[in-house]
Amino acid sequence: MPATSSPYRVNVRDIVHRPGEMREKTLDVVAPEQLGAGAAVVAEGAELELDLRLEGLHDGILVTGQVRTTASADCVRCLEPVELPLQVDFQELFAYSPEVADDYQVHDNHVDCEPVVRDAVVLALPFQPVCRDDCPGLDPETGERLADHPERRPSETIDPRWAALEGFQAETD
Question: Which residues, in sequence order, are CB contacts of 147 under 8 Å at separation 6+?
Fold first, then answer.
Protein backbone atom coordinates (compact mmCIF):
# COMPACT_ATOMS: atom_id res chain seq x y z
CA MET A 1 0.00 0.00 0.00
CA PRO A 2 1.53 3.38 -0.94
CA ALA A 3 2.25 5.71 1.95
CA THR A 4 0.06 8.44 0.41
CA SER A 5 -3.08 6.31 0.77
CA SER A 6 -2.35 4.96 4.25
CA PRO A 7 -5.38 5.41 6.54
CA TYR A 8 -2.92 6.02 9.41
CA ARG A 9 -1.31 9.04 7.71
CA VAL A 10 -1.89 12.32 9.58
CA ASN A 11 -1.27 15.85 8.28
CA VAL A 12 0.86 17.85 10.75
CA ARG A 13 1.54 20.90 8.56
CA ASP A 14 0.09 23.34 11.13
CA ILE A 15 2.45 22.23 13.94
CA VAL A 16 5.67 21.43 12.02
CA HIS A 17 8.59 23.48 13.43
CA ARG A 18 6.29 25.09 16.00
CA PRO A 19 7.42 23.90 19.43
CA GLY A 20 4.63 24.06 21.97
CA GLU A 21 1.80 23.66 19.43
CA MET A 22 -0.56 20.76 20.03
CA ARG A 23 -3.43 19.17 18.13
CA GLU A 24 -5.74 16.32 19.00
CA LYS A 25 -7.17 14.08 16.34
CA THR A 26 -9.46 11.05 16.27
CA LEU A 27 -9.19 8.49 13.50
CA ASP A 28 -11.48 5.57 12.74
CA VAL A 29 -9.45 3.13 10.70
CA VAL A 30 -10.35 -0.18 9.12
CA ALA A 31 -7.38 -2.54 9.49
CA PRO A 32 -6.03 -3.02 5.95
CA GLU A 33 -4.40 -6.29 7.00
CA GLN A 34 -4.46 -8.76 9.88
CA LEU A 35 -2.49 -7.63 12.92
CA GLY A 36 -0.74 -10.47 14.72
CA ALA A 37 -0.17 -14.08 13.81
CA GLY A 38 -0.42 -15.94 17.12
CA ALA A 39 -3.34 -17.27 19.13
CA ALA A 40 -5.07 -13.85 19.11
CA VAL A 41 -5.28 -11.50 16.12
CA VAL A 42 -7.00 -8.33 15.00
CA ALA A 43 -8.65 -9.43 11.79
CA GLU A 44 -8.35 -7.64 8.48
CA GLY A 45 -11.29 -5.24 8.23
CA ALA A 46 -11.61 -4.78 12.01
CA GLU A 47 -12.31 -1.28 13.27
CA LEU A 48 -9.54 0.58 15.09
CA GLU A 49 -10.33 3.79 16.97
CA LEU A 50 -7.30 6.04 17.40
CA ASP A 51 -7.18 9.04 19.72
CA LEU A 52 -4.04 11.02 18.90
CA ARG A 53 -2.29 13.93 20.54
CA LEU A 54 0.28 15.57 18.24
CA GLU A 55 2.78 17.93 19.85
CA GLY A 56 5.32 20.09 18.04
CA LEU A 57 8.83 19.87 19.48
CA HIS A 58 12.19 21.38 18.43
CA ASP A 59 13.36 18.15 16.82
CA GLY A 60 10.09 16.57 15.67
CA ILE A 61 6.46 15.72 16.34
CA LEU A 62 5.60 13.72 19.46
CA VAL A 63 2.62 11.45 18.82
CA THR A 64 0.86 10.11 21.89
CA GLY A 65 -2.14 7.92 21.30
CA GLN A 66 -4.53 5.24 22.30
CA VAL A 67 -5.93 2.46 20.10
CA ARG A 68 -9.17 0.64 20.85
CA THR A 69 -10.17 -2.44 18.90
CA THR A 70 -11.35 -6.03 19.30
CA ALA A 71 -9.13 -9.06 18.88
CA SER A 72 -10.45 -12.50 18.03
CA ALA A 73 -9.02 -15.75 19.30
CA ASP A 74 -9.80 -19.26 20.39
CA CYS A 75 -9.58 -20.00 24.10
CA VAL A 76 -6.40 -22.02 24.64
CA ARG A 77 -8.15 -24.16 27.28
CA CYS A 78 -11.55 -25.00 25.76
CA LEU A 79 -11.10 -23.88 22.11
CA GLU A 80 -14.22 -21.70 22.09
CA PRO A 81 -14.07 -18.50 19.99
CA VAL A 82 -13.40 -15.37 22.07
CA GLU A 83 -13.72 -11.66 21.32
CA LEU A 84 -11.24 -9.65 23.39
CA PRO A 85 -11.54 -5.87 23.80
CA LEU A 86 -8.13 -4.31 23.43
CA GLN A 87 -6.99 -0.85 24.51
CA VAL A 88 -3.35 0.13 23.94
CA ASP A 89 -1.42 3.33 24.65
CA PHE A 90 1.62 4.36 22.62
CA GLN A 91 4.01 7.27 22.23
CA GLU A 92 6.58 7.93 19.51
CA LEU A 93 8.73 10.80 18.27
CA PHE A 94 8.69 11.49 14.53
CA ALA A 95 11.89 13.44 13.84
CA TYR A 96 12.33 16.22 11.26
CA SER A 97 15.80 15.17 10.12
CA PRO A 98 17.23 11.72 9.37
CA GLU A 99 20.20 12.41 11.66
CA VAL A 100 17.92 12.73 14.70
CA ALA A 101 15.43 10.02 13.68
CA ASP A 102 15.77 6.75 15.53
CA ASP A 103 12.99 4.99 13.66
CA TYR A 104 10.36 7.43 12.44
CA GLN A 105 10.42 10.64 10.49
CA VAL A 106 8.08 13.42 9.38
CA HIS A 107 7.62 13.14 5.58
CA ASP A 108 5.97 15.85 3.47
CA ASN A 109 4.33 17.38 6.57
CA HIS A 110 2.75 14.04 7.46
CA VAL A 111 3.37 11.32 10.03
CA ASP A 112 2.46 7.73 9.25
CA CYS A 113 1.30 6.09 12.48
CA GLU A 114 0.77 2.66 10.89
CA PRO A 115 4.00 0.97 12.10
CA VAL A 116 3.62 2.44 15.59
CA VAL A 117 -0.01 1.33 15.88
CA ARG A 118 0.74 -2.11 14.42
CA ASP A 119 3.63 -2.70 16.84
CA ALA A 120 1.64 -1.49 19.86
CA VAL A 121 -1.39 -3.66 19.03
CA VAL A 122 0.60 -6.80 18.19
CA LEU A 123 2.65 -6.54 21.39
CA ALA A 124 -0.53 -6.12 23.46
CA LEU A 125 -2.25 -9.24 22.09
CA PRO A 126 -2.49 -11.98 24.72
CA PHE A 127 -0.11 -14.89 24.20
CA GLN A 128 -2.57 -17.44 25.63
CA PRO A 129 -6.11 -16.03 25.45
CA VAL A 130 -8.81 -17.59 27.61
CA CYS A 131 -12.58 -17.16 27.52
CA ARG A 132 -12.57 -16.55 31.28
CA ASP A 133 -9.92 -16.73 33.98
CA ASP A 134 -11.40 -19.86 35.58
CA CYS A 135 -12.03 -21.78 32.34
CA PRO A 136 -11.72 -25.48 33.25
CA GLY A 137 -10.75 -26.49 29.71
CA LEU A 138 -11.45 -29.85 28.09
CA ASP A 139 -11.93 -33.28 29.60
CA PRO A 140 -8.70 -35.12 28.75
CA GLU A 141 -10.57 -38.42 28.25
CA THR A 142 -13.64 -37.36 26.24
CA GLY A 143 -12.56 -33.99 24.81
CA GLU A 144 -15.79 -32.34 25.97
CA ARG A 145 -15.80 -28.87 27.48
CA LEU A 146 -15.78 -29.17 31.26
CA ALA A 147 -17.71 -25.89 31.56
CA ASP A 148 -20.68 -27.61 29.86
CA HIS A 149 -20.53 -30.46 32.42
CA PRO A 150 -19.61 -28.90 35.80
CA GLU A 151 -20.43 -32.11 37.67
CA ARG A 152 -17.86 -34.12 35.73
CA ARG A 153 -14.37 -34.30 37.12
CA PRO A 154 -11.47 -35.88 35.25
CA SER A 155 -10.44 -39.17 36.76
CA GLU A 156 -7.25 -39.06 38.73
CA THR A 157 -4.69 -41.57 37.62
CA ILE A 158 -2.05 -42.52 40.12
CA ASP A 159 1.51 -42.82 38.99
CA PRO A 160 2.42 -46.53 39.36
CA ARG A 161 5.60 -45.54 41.20
CA TRP A 162 3.44 -44.17 44.04
CA ALA A 163 0.84 -46.97 44.03
CA ALA A 164 2.54 -48.77 46.95
CA LEU A 165 1.85 -45.76 49.17
CA GLU A 166 -1.86 -45.76 48.39
CA GLY A 167 -2.68 -47.88 51.44
CA PHE A 168 -1.02 -45.56 53.92
CA GLN A 169 -3.11 -42.90 55.63
CA ALA A 170 -1.56 -39.65 56.72
CA GLU A 171 -1.49 -39.36 60.47
CA THR A 172 -2.94 -36.16 61.83
CA ASP A 173 -1.86 -34.85 65.21
Answer: 78, 135, 136
